[in-house]
C-alpha cells in the first residue's frame, strides 16, 4: 500500500500515517526500514489490537488535516487514483464518505456498492428479479450516491468524522464503516462512489490472519450488532430466520455438491453448525 501511494503523497505535500495495530509479522519494522527517512511518513504503534474502528479513531484523533484518506493495509492505489478521490471532495461538499472502484488482484471488478443491511434489502438481494435493484448489482462505472461503500478506502472531511463521533468501537471487525455511513446518511451526508479512482483490494487479508477461513462468521455477528443498534422491531428475528434458511440451503447444496463444499467453507457442515450457533445462541451480551 505505501509504495503505491508514496509518489502521490510526496507530490501533494501530504502525510502518510501508518497505524500499526499490534501486528506480529514484522511489517511495521519493514515499513520503517524502507520509508522511515521520508519526511512525509509517520508510524504510530499500538500495544494492543484495537480493531479497525478503534485503531482508526486513535489515528485520526490527533491528525492535523482537513481531508483524511483512510486505507486498509491490503490495498494498492493505481496511478492517479488518490488525486481523483481528492478532487471528488470538492465536487461533493455534501458527501459523508467518498470511495473508489475496487478491483480484485487479477484486475476484475470487486463489487463494493451496498444497501444498508436491513432484512428486506438482504432478502431482495438473493431473489433474482429483485436483486437487479440491489446496489451490489448497480453498474460500477459511473459516479453515484449509494447507501454505503465497502470501506477498504474511505475519504472524508475530518471535522465531519469527528462531529459524527467517529467509528463505533463496539464493532471490532466488519460493518464499522456501514454503521458510520448510516449515521452520516441520517444526517444528510451520503456516500459517493468515484469509479475514476481504482484501488486493488485483497479483501479480508488482515482478518484471515486472525480468524482464518471462518472470517464469514464475523459478518453475521456484525450484522446482528448493526440491527440491534439501528433495526426496526422484529428486524433481528427476520434476519435470523432468513439467514437460517439460507445457511440450511447451503448445507444441503454442499452435501449434494462436494466440489462446491471444498471450494467454499460456507457450504461445509462444520461451518454451518457454527453459523447456526452464531445466529441463535442465547447469550448475546457482546452484540
Radius of gyration: 19 Å
Described by strand count, sense and barrel closure, the largest sheet is: 5 strands, mixed
Q: Please tell me the overall pLDDT.
A: 91
> What's the level 1 CATH class of the largest domain?
Alpha Beta
Q: How would you sum up this structure, described in words?
A:
With 287 residues, the protein is α+β, with helices and mostly antiparallel strands. The protein folds into two domains: 2-208, Spore Coat Polysaccharide Biosynthesis Protein SpsA, Chain A (Alpha-Beta Complex), CATH 3.90.550.10; 232-280, no CATH class. The chain has helices at 2-11, 27-35, 51-61, 81-91, 119-125, 128-131, 158-163, 176-186, 205-211, 216-230, 235-256, 258-263, 269-280, and strands at 16-20, 41-45, 67-71, 75-77, 97-103, 109-110, 113-114, 144-146, 148-149, 153-157, 191-201. Strands 4, 5, 6, 8 and 11 form a five-stranded mixed beta sheet that branches. It has a two-stranded parallel sheet with strand order 1-2. A hairpin with a 5-residue loop joins strand 5 and strand 6.
Brief overview, please?
This protein has helices at 2-11, 27-35, 51-61, 81-91, 119-125, 128-131, 158-163, 176-186, 205-211, 216-230, 235-256, 258-263, 269-280; strands spanning 16-20, 41-45, 67-71, 75-77, 97-103, 109-110, 113-114, 144-146, 148-149, 153-157, 191-201.
Topology readout:
Blueprint: H1 2-11, E1 16-20, H2 27-35, E2 41-45, H3 51-61, E3 67-71, E4 75-77, H4 81-91, E5 97-103, E6 109-110, E7 113-114, H5 119-125, H6 128-131, E8 144-146, E9 148-149, E10 153-157, H7 158-163, H8 176-186, E11 191-201, H9 205-211, H10 216-230, H11 235-256, H12 258-263, H13 269-280
Parallel strand pairs: 1-2, 5-11
Antiparallel strand pairs: 3-10, 4-11, 5-6, 7-9, 8-11
Amino acid at each position: 500500500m505505501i509504495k503505491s501511494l508514496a509518489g502521490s503523497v510526496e507530490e501533494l505535500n501530504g502525510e502518510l500515517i501508518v497505524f500499526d495495530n499490534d501486528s506480529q509479522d514484522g511489517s511495521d519494522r519493514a515499513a520503517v526500514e524502507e520509508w522511515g527517512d521520508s519526511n512525509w511518513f509517520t508510524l504510530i504503534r499500538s500495544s494492543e489490537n484495537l480493531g479497525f474502528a478503534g485503531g482508526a479513531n486513535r489515528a485520526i484523533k490527533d491528525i492535523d488535516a482537513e481531508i483524511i484518506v483512510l486505507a486498509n493495509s491490503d490495498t494498492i492505489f493505481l496511478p492517479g487514483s488518490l488525486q481523483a478521490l481528492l478532487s471528488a471532495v470538492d465536487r461533493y461538499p455534501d458527501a459523508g464518505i467518498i470511495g473508489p472502484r475496487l478491483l480484485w488482484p487479477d484486475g476484475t471488478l470487486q463489487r463494493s456498492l451496498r444497501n444498508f443491511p436491513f432484512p428486506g434489502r438482504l432478502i431482495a438481494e438473493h431473489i433474482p428479479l429483485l436483486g437487479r435493484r440491489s446496489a451490489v448489482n448497480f453498474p460500477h462505472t459511473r459516479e453515484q450516491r449509494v447507501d454505503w461503500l465497502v470501506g477498504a478506502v474511505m475519504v472524508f472531511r475530518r471535522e465531519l468524522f469527528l462531529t459524527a463521533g467517529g467509528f463505533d468501537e463496539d464493532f471490532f471487525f466488519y460493518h464499522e464503516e456501514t454503521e458510520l455511513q448510516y449515521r452520516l446518511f441520517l444526517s444528510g451526508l451520503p456516500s459517493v462512489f468515484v469509479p475514476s479512482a481504482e484501488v486493488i483490494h485483497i479483501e479480508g487479508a488482515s482478518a484471515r490472519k486472525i480468524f482464518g477461513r471462518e472470517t464469514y462468521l464475523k459478518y453475521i455477528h456484525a450484522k446482528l450488532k448493526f440491527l440491534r443498534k439501528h433495526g426496526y422491531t422484529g428486524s433481528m428475528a427476520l434476519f435470523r430466520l432468513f439467514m437460517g434458511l439460507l445457511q440450511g440451503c447451503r448445507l444441503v447444496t454442499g452435501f449434494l455438491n462436494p466440489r462446491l463444499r471444498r471450494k467454499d467453507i460456507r457450504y461445509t457442515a462444520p461451518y454451518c453448525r457454527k453459523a447456526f450457533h452464531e445466529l441463535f445462541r442465547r447469550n448475546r451480551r457482546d452484540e
